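Would you kindly consider the sequence and fold I have copied below?
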Amino acid sequence: MGPDKTAAKQCLLSADRFLKESRFQDARTEIEKAKKFDPSNVYVLAFLDRINYFEAQQKKEAQVSAAKAHPSPAPAAPSPQPHAATPPPHAAIPQPVKPIVPNVPKPAPATTEVPLASAPPPPVKPKEAPEPVAPARSEHRGVETTLEEMKRQIEMLTHSLEQEKKAREDMSKQQLQSTVLQLRTSMEKAWATGAPNEQEEEALHKLAISLSIPENVELSLRREVKLKMYSTAVKEVISKRQLLRSSSSTLEWLRKVYQVSMEEYLEYETKFLLDLVADQYKGTLLYVTPNVKTKDELIPRLKAAGYAVVLSGTPEEALEKIEKINPNIILCHTEFSPGSLSGVKFLHLLRASAKFNFIPFLLLCESPEVSQLKSSELRQHEGFLKKPVDVDELMIAMNEKLARFRDYVSSLS
């Protein structure tokens, strides 16, 4: 997958997260970014439809909530009339109380007779404003159910999109895996010593066409191989100390050889430097030596090989430092001044320690001591070299002992 498609994928995932958080504008921004990175992506329109749908749903819910929080105002109750100077009609003359005669019909009044006053009407109570009706519990539960259903649908749709996308990627990988591997191998051979010439580039392009590799995949693979081979060349040049006037001029020269633009270098600069440091650093080396001359000659070579060197003049001093530095390998001379431990006794002391008895250990001995050390029972992570020390031979022996130590550690896990 090319960098643009990868960037588009990250934008879609961010848009999905924003959509779940109802951050619709942020989701639209991510969709627009994805559309710029990968205009042919089929998921862009689907995400826009999802955003529009859920944004409309949220507006409806907001309107319903606003209507419930602020119901329509009821008609205002009539304010009570103030006491007037003249009494209102039907209330000026109090009506005498008439005795109730059971089962005696009352004679109908004459049509021309006007009663003094009709019976007073019952007092009219002012209308009270209706209390706001609380939403029904069933309606509240219905809204919660709708929200839960929407969330479930979002999760199902997101899961379906991820599954579909993964299935498409897996199919593409299976179809392109063998052909891409073949093209990558040819590209790495062509870029082994720098950028290929026009004839080699044309041959690689024809090979990609014959393998039915899409053009965008070919370009992405070309960039990947170019940066990889450039990084490998930088490591080899620095490890062999074949620098030009300075490290910066060496890197600039290699960039021209491999046609790495400054933008590409700056984009991957951190990775280049981290890989370079990781490859160069091999661990801490405890060097126990009484010989100043040998120390001055050997230490620069050890540091150049990637070791952090800690010096000790005697085994006793080394025993004091070993707890603090916890070395990855120990390099020790066999003979020291009278009254001090020998290198062999120092080795025996470390064998008795459960914490340090598996540290790789190399003795540097004189010629008469070789036969004695050969007959001794040295372990697989222990060894010796004859002085004067050949640096290349020393590096090979150290790498061998470190490899055995790593194998031992791996066997414990």
Confidence is low (pLDDT under 50) at residues 82-94, 96-102, 104-119. The longest strand covers residues 283-288. The CA atoms of residues 195 and 259 lie 6 Å apart. The two ends are 35 Å apart (CA to CA).
